[in-house]
Amino acid sequence: MPGFEGDISPLKDDRRALGLGLLAVVLWSTVATAFKLALAELTVLQLVAVAVNTSALALLGVLVWQRKLGDLLALLRRSPGELLTLGTVNPLIYYCVLLAAYDQLPAQQAQTINYTWAIMLALLSVPVLGQRLAARDWIAVVLGYLGVVIIATEGRFLALEFTSPLGVGLALASTLIWAGFWLASARSKHDPALALAGSFLFAAPLSVVLCLFFGNGLPSPGAGLASAIYVGFFEMGFTWLLWSTALRTASNVSRVGNLIFLAPLLSLVFIATILGEPIQPATLLGLALIVPGILLQQRGGGTA
């Protein structure tokens, strides 16, 4: 999931930025499908353990390649408590909650509801940053969460008959956790790539302990394990670096940033073709409310 801009390349190259941005969006669009394929064979904690450790190794490898390992070690010595806290929140708690939502809901519902994290970010900015929401921000909130209700009830929004109240609650909780994590990380003065790698290195052994004691042990080789490794590379680690590089190399960040709105639509294509999950008209209607709501909120700037 996007939200950070790493200091990876200062050179401006719009064609390269567009290509990297599109690649990142396509990879992110496959993740909801990978979640469901993995969860068909693994427990939530098994998936989290494999994916977090895979991502930690991938991020560590990138930093070694960039000759930033010394910087990472210095950061680990300087701020172990902060990195442990960040790592516990994300990836550990965040992905446990998000994947539990995927375990309860159809992929199309979980991924679309989770997409409202940007609207939750605007709401959290009020108590955390002391900002005030403008009228257009409140319209964005109404549009976004009306879309959530339509999706979660599969169109039966007047009766409020949710497919899975627990799953919907977990999906919404994941947006709260991610938005809170983003606000906390945005205040950090550390290099984002180093801080991300450090938080994953702290979370990796914790995820294994949780898996061993509460998640039925480490998984055996199979399709579920392969899907979990895929998630580690292309949801949590490598793709974030692609996205960060795209933002850094673009002369106009918004042109690349707006590519992210393709992700939920592409994701529905993968969900339908690979998982064979029929896309409900309510999902498309809800998405048609959520995406304009996010665009409206972003253009409003979130303050009054």
Strand content: under 5%
Q: Kindly provide the radius of gyration, computed on alpha-carbon positions and rounded to a whole number of angstroms.
A: 19 Å
Distance from first to last alpha carbon: 27 Å
Oligomer: single chain
User: What's the total count of β strands?
Assistant: 0
Poorly predicted spans = 3-10
Rough shape? globular
When the domains are counted, the total is 1
Largest sheet: none
Nearest-integer average pLDDT: 86
Helix content: over 70%
Structure description:
The chain has helices spanning 14-29, 31-39, 44-65, 69-78, 80-104, 107-114, 117-129, 135-152, 165-186, 192-214, 223-249, 253-257, 263-275, 281-300. The chain is an all-alpha fold. It has one domain (14-300). The longest helix has 27 residues, at 223-249.
What's the topology here?
Elements: H1 14-29, H2 31-39, H3 44-65, H4 69-78, H5 80-104, H6 107-114, H7 117-129, H8 135-152, H9 165-186, H10 192-214, H11 223-249, H12 253-257, H13 263-275, H14 281-300
Summarize this, please?
The chain is an all-alpha fold. The chain is built from 14 helices and no strands.
Features:
disordered N terminus, globular, 14 helices, 304 residues, mainly alpha
